[in-house]
């Protein structure tokens, strides 16, 4: 009986009927600047949690704010029938800062431009969150016998520092059979993919102080140390900036190269270098072969320099020797690498080559190796096929989601991914956007997924 109701046609018409409501709800959330990195936005982060709770209440669900040491979690749900299976959908409601000069409109004003939705958080990750929410509404309306829960985080974009503690504290009420995360990107439009792995992350900052204030480079230059050049030289010993090859001894020791089977999947994923460059508006790239690009983004660890602080940055040149400098660096890690080991290697190297440089460690995230077989994985594949009429490949993801491994460890269940964002939506970029094709298809995919899972033996 349920199967009769959840036809493609009925779900598509549900989505079409709900479009204006979906847009209104997404607008409310996007217009709250829940920037977790900015302490001045604490009030907005709290307001976002409250808005999320009222979203559930408006649509016949229940929700509560769960406190943690840091920003709260939102737990929302439809259904509390102990005889039914429980699925939890994870998304994050915090967003990246939006001060890039290239924004053509206010990042926290939700703009509807035909089928495109613009604003910070529209695709990362409020749009997919609200999409999954409407997928649940569709499933509930059709009477799908499943407890559908939602766990929305407000610290994902700063590495989930309070998530583990929060989960431990509220573990009992968050008991679930499986988790589905909607916070990843497809290969490109029309080519769904779901990750069988995520990269981890370990950030660190290098600082050096060699004087008290700016000095005339004609007066002291040649004899005085220069902290900017020293840090640049040090980084150059750890990393070949042209090829991306990490020179730090032992860095690649634990890396497990992708299996032949995985590589085969990547080759058939429909990825092209041309589309990749177009989606991200890249002007140049280190390698051209598609499989080489994918190996680098999905299968290999990296070291990136994100920022150099110090010296004069105004117009023209000030020929001073700066007294202090900082370099901001992070490494993306692949499964089997250990963030602590990476940090230990960096520290040992710095100690040997530049003993008075200080290494400041940032929060680390473990890499994640996912599941590609079994009924939950099959249900993801089936949902994409049903909703988007396209096969879904198991790929990997170059990005990191701190909560994923923590949820598996603390809640003791498996995590799967039903992502809806596209590379061209511009994660973290100015003019971030989302669109109705992904949203409406996503609602259908989620509803189908919930229905499939409700039938599991
Ligand atoms: N949604 C992304 C994770 C992601 C990125 C998935 C790229 C797939 C492809 C998430 O919101 C994110 O940006 N994570 C950060 C975490 C960091 C700030 C601790 C990341 O990967 O840099
Ligand atoms: Mn995200
Ligand atoms: Mn993000």
What is the number of independent domains?
2
**Uncertain ranges:** none
Instruction: Please count the helical segments.
Output: 13
Q: Return the CATH architecture of the largest domain.
A: 3-Layer(aba) Sandwich
> What's the CATH C level of the largest domain?
Alpha Beta
Quick summary of this structure?
The protein has 457 residues and is an alpha+beta fold. It folds into two domains: 2-198 and 367-454, Aminopeptidase; 200-255 and 300-365, 2-Layer Sandwich (Alpha-Beta Plaits), CATH 3.30.70.360.
Report on the architecture of this protein:
43% of the residues are buried. The protein is globular, with a radius of gyration of 23 Å. It has helices at residues 2-5, 8-30, 42-58, 122-141, 163-170, 227-238, 260-267, 273-280, 290-299, 339-353, 375-388, 402-411, 436-454; strands at residues 62-66, 73-78, 86-92, 111-113, 116-118, 147-153, 178-181, 193-198, 200-209, 215-216, 302-309, 320-321, 324-333, 358-365, 368-369, 393-397, 414-417, 433-435. The chain has 457 residues and is α+β, with helices and mostly antiparallel strands. The structure holds ligand BES and manganese (II) ion (2 copies). One manganese (II) ion (MN) is lined by residues 96, 124, 157, 427-428.
């Amino acid at each position: 009986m349920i199967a009769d109701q959840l036809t493609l046609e009925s779900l598509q018409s549900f989505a079409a009927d709900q479009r204006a409501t979906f847009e209104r709800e997404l607008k409310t959330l996007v217009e709250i600047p829940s920037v977790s990195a900015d302490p001045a936005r604490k009030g907005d982060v709290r307001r976002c949690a409250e808005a999320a709770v009222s979203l559930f209440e408006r649509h016949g669900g229940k929700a509560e704010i769960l406190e943690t040491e840091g920003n709260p979690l939102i737990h929302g749900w439809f259904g509390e029938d102990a005889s039914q299976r429980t699925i939890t959908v994870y998304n994050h409601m915090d967003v990246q800062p939006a001060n890039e000069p290239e924004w053509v409109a206010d990042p926290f004003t939700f703009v509807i431009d035909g089928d495109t939705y613009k604003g910070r958080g529209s695709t990362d990750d409020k749009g997919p969150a609200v999409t999954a929410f409407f997928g649940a509404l569709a499933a509930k309306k059709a009477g799908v016998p499943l407890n559908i829960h939602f766990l929305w985080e407000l610290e994902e974009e700063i590495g989930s520092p309070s998530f583990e503690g929060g989960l431990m504290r509220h573990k009992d009420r968050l008991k679930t059979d499986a988790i589905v995360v909607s916070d990843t990107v497809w290969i490109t439009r029309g080519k769904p993919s779901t990750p069988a792995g995520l990269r981890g992350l370990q950030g660190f900052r290098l600082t050096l102080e060699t004087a008290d204030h700016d000095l005339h480079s004609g007066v002291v230059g040649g004899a005085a140390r220069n902290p900017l050049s020293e840090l640049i030289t040090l980084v150059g010993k750890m990393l070949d900036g042209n090829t991306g090859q990490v020179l730090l001894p032992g860095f690649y020791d634990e890396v497990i190269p992708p299996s032949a089977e995985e590589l085969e999947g990547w080759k058939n994923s429909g990825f092209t270098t041309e589309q990749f460059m177009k989606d991200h508006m890249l002007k140049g790239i280190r390698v051209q072969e598609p499989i080489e690009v994918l190996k680098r983004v999905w299968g290999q660890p990296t070291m990136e320099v994100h920022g150099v602080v110090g010296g004069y940055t105004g117009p023209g040149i000030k020929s001073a020797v700066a007294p202090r400098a900082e370099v901001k660096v992070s490494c993306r890690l692949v499964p089997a690498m250990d963030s602590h080991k990476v940090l230990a290697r960096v520290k040992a190297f710095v100690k040997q080559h530049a003993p008075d440089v200080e290494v400041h460690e940032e929060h680390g995230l473990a890499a994640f190796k996912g599941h590609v077989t079994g009924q939950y994985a099959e249900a993801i594949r089936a949902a994409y096929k049903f909703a988007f009429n396209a096969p879904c490949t198991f790929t990997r993801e170059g990005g990191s989601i701190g909560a994923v491994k923590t949820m598996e460890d603390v809640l003791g269940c498996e995590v799967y991914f039903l992502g809806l964002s596209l590379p061209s939506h511009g994660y973290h970029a100015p003019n971030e956007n989302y669109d109705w094709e992904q949203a409406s298809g996503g609602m259908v995919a989620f509803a189908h997924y919930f229905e499939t899972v409700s039938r599991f033996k």
